[in-house]
Design brief:
Length: 143
């Protein structure tokens, strides 16, 4: 997913980032310890097993925590985009209610016009407001 153009107001994950870095530091320490033990050329003992187990476990923990951090950041970006879309929808509904010709207390839900009424001079990503779509009366909507 592409990053939004506007800055995201809240990006969770500072605590998760701390634990990812902490797991990385511990994993690095265990791997160095295992490398030093292997370089000494001694036969494999319990210390080697502890160093290898620590290296593998902390590496896996760092990978899992890193994946969780990436998912949190992606979810925060999606949540911010959803909030922006909700604001756009509510603003368009407010503008449509203020510019409507009839004085109803309920804002009609904008419906898409038939294919013959669609404008063809728009680009593929351009939005059309509810006011530009035209207004149909209720009898046409019931059909």
């Amino acid at each position: 997913m592409a990053e939004p153009d506007r800055p995201v107001p809240h990006r969770p994950g500072a605590v998760s980032l701390f634990f990812v870095v902490k797991a990385g530091v511990f994993a690095l320490g265990f791997w160095i310890w295992l490398l030093v033990l292997a370089a000494q050329g001694d036969p494999a003992e319990g210390v080697h097993l502890v160093a290898a187990t620590g290296a593998i476990c902390t590496t896996l923990a760092g990978v899992v925590l890193g994946a969780r951090l990436a998912l949190q950041r992606n979810a925060a970006a999606r949540h911010a985009e959803l909030k922006r879309l909700l604001v756009d929808i509510s603003w368009n509904a407010f503008a449509a209610a203020g510019n409507s010709d009839h004085t109803a207390k309920v804002v009609p839900f904008p419906t898409s016009p038939p294919d013959t009424e669609r404008a063809t001079n728009r680009g593929p990503g351009e939005r059309v407001s509810a006011l530009d779509r035209g207004d149909r009366n209720r009898s046409e909507r019931r059909r």
